[in-house]
Amino acid sequence: DVVVTQSPLSLPVTLGQPASISCRSSQSLVSSDGNTYLNWFHQRPGQSPRRLIYKVSNRDSGVPDRFSGSGSGTDFTLKISRVEAEDVGVYYCMQGTHWPRTFGQGTKLEIK
Amino acid sequence: EVQLLESGGGLVQPGGSLRLSCVGSGFSISSSGMTWVRQAPGMGLEWVASISATFGNTYYADSVKGRFTISRDNSKNTLYLQMDSLRAGDTALYHCAKGTSNVDFWGQGTLVTVSS
Questions:
Q1: How far is B109 from B115, CA to CA, in rounded Å?
Q2: Interface mutation vs chain B, best among A47, A48, A53, A102, most B CBs within 10 Å
């Protein structure tokens, strides 16, 4: 199985400051169709996860442009340019290239 | 507007069975492929099973293989998860989600508690 490892697991951030989360996979996530299926989700307490980014760097509709995704192969990053109060919660990456699908452990973002 | 509504959760004894349902609206589940993901209390997300769009191929996590069955009824635009031989470790909030590679929209989930 592809192991997906996120870091850090806890991320205290000051409002207005940038934040970055790393997601590394044990195998390349480049699919046979040429796409890289790496998704990023945000889960607020008591809510379902909401997808922010798909295929590494594509922002979903309605997602603020302060969120960006980058990376390739086995190494990926989610960046928030300026953290706002509504960004608190847990962030997960998920690989959709290999079976079984696998999630990272989650990164809990909190405001300092 | 895409909506997913899960149902069928509840309290069941170890060794028992439950069938979860997920009704989709605003899109066709047969053309999207669908996924079940679970989240144990206070824990992270765990992929459970998926069914592909075109041919309905099914895929399972090792932890549920042989015990759970994912299926769909295209005429009802409904996804199912038949769960047999349930264990305490299956206790979780079960979400259905649209897609299999680019999983995008999630339902609110239905809670399954396995306890005697």
A1: 19
A2: A48
